[in-house]
Specification:
alpha+beta, 4-stranded antiparallel beta sheet, 4 strands, 27% helix, SpoVG_sf
């Protein structure tokens, strides 16, 4: 089955006080039809890279997650692009660079 590129829009990042690598939560809209939220954004230890986690219930039941690597990659790219933009603005704000 050939996978078409999905449309990802309205990517939003809500930063939190970092806890064990968790720096915030992301939300987005897929194909102007499905709203997804509660996607955890983590900074990988010792790097400037990020990783995502998808919401689960306490019993380990996945609420949603990408099924294919292609869709996972598209979601990661969309979220990480916004995360890097937001993080650079936060850095600029606290270091008085380009303010």
């Amino acid at each position: 089955m050939k996978m078409e590129k999905i449309s990802i829009s309205e990517v939003k990042i809500n930063l939190i006080k970092p806890q064990e690598g968790l720096i915030g939560f992301a939300s987005l809209v897929i194909n102007e039809s499905i709203y997804l939220s509660g996607i955890g954004v983590y900074r990988k230890f010792g790097t400037n890279d990020f990783r995502l986690t998808y919401p689960t219930k306490k019993d380990g039941f996945n609420l949603f997650h990408p099924i294919t690597k292609e869709v996972s990659k598209q979601i990661e790219e969309a979220i990480f692009q916004v995360v890097k933009t937001v993080m650079s603005k936060v850095y600029d704000r606290y270091n008085n660079i380009n303010v």
